[in-house]
Amino acid sequence: IINRSDFITGPTVEKFEKAISDYTGAEDCAGLGSGTNALVCALKALDVGEGDEVLTVGHTFVSTTEAIVNVGAKPVFMDIDEYYHFDLNPCYKFDEIYLLLNPPKAILFVDLYGQTPDIDKIKKFAKKYRIKVIEDAAQSFGAKYKDKTIGSLVDLTCFSFNPVKNLGAMGDAGAVTGSKKLIDKVKMYRDHGRRTKYDYEKVGYNARIDNLQAVVIQAKLKKIDEWTKRKRKICQKYTEALKDIVKTPKEAPWAYHSYYVYVIETPEGTRDALQKYLKEKGIATNIHYKFPTHTTKAFKDEYTEKLPRTEYICNNILSLPCYFTLSERNQNFIIKTIKEFYEKH
């Protein structure tokens, strides 16, 4: 790549896009500069814009909410279910007449932590009310829904290849998969709204993937299934060891969980003390995500929905180390330390 000065677009990106399409079973793929760019260009490709309502969640990384707002649409936040997913049971914000006469423009759901919600249920709801569906799969590359690899199950699927993801580049990168017709529109928006060099059809973005990231991802793609199996084994060991002490992740019956992160739900009021105790023992943890996006300064003035389950969860969750190279010795130490904490409390 460096010797050819082949840094943006061209055959290198086309090979990357074919590799992702082949893996996911999607008709086509567009490489983008980040997962956030993927979300924005997907929304634009589905003609989501000024004033449109998009059903989504507040329990997610900010990119999901940010992308909706940045195309001029309004996020309509739904609470979460037992799997921490977008909850349509029931769709309590709307009555039947409203949905039939004035449906939201799109649903943007999130495969939080690496497993999908019930996609068939979402698609059935969306079809009834003529709603477009986007899957934010930033955390779930390699996951499956009913034995089908995600990437071709809804209108458009958005991936992130940020270095911290299960399939990560050296920097930021992303992709969108879907039908050729929609992906052609995504490709137009990612490249300044043009199809040829000076033919600007729409107002677009500079959102192209760089070729170094594309080849790094392709090289690592060959390993993703093996890495995912290792992570699943590590996370299943956590679940078996900790299930009687904290609330461990619940795997949905339809999902093959890829475990971007392993998130426990601590007994109420103990999360911060546990995190401090683990840190004192040299164990790093994180909170995915400490503040629901609808409660943060950037969004709370305009979007005032109360989501009790979302807000409760965000006060009590903690992410444990679960990288695929985590040694058995280190994992045993983490488990032992968590047990010690709760024996003392």
Briefly characterize the structure.
The protein is of the alpha/beta class and 345 residues long. It contains eleven helices and 14 strands.
List the keywords.
345 residues; alpha/beta; seven-stranded mixed beta sheet; three-stranded antiparallel beta sheet; 11 helices; globular
| Radius of gyration, in angstroms, nearest whole number | 20 Å
Distance between the termini: 56 Å
The number of helices is 11
Mean pLDDT: 95
Strand content: 15-25%
Sheet of most strands: 7 strands, mixed
**Percent of residues in helices:** 25-40%
Structural class: alpha/beta
Q: Taking strands numbered 1, 2, ... along the chain, how are they ordered across the largest sheet?
A: 1-9-8-5-4-2-3
Shape: globular
Structure commentary:
This protein has 345 residues and is α/β, with parallel strands linked by helices. It has eleven helices and 14 strands. Helix 8 (224-242) runs parallel beside helix 11. The longest helix has 19 residues, at 224-242. The model has no long low-confidence stretch (mean pLDDT 95).
Secondary structure elements and their pairing?
Blueprint: H1 11-24, E1 28-32, H2 35-45, E2 53-57, H3 62-70, E3 74-78, H4 96-101, E4 106-110, H5 119-129, E5 132-136, E6 144-145, E7 148-149, E8 156-160, E9 174-178, H6 180-190, E10 194-196, E11 199-200, H7 211-221, H8 224-242, E12 255-256, E13 262-265, H9 271-280, H10 308-314, E14 317-320, H11 328-344
Parallel strand pairs: 2-3, 2-4, 4-5, 5-8
Antiparallel strand pairs: 1-9, 6-7, 6-12, 8-9, 10-11, 13-14
Helix pairs in contact: 1-7, 2-3, 2-6, 8-11
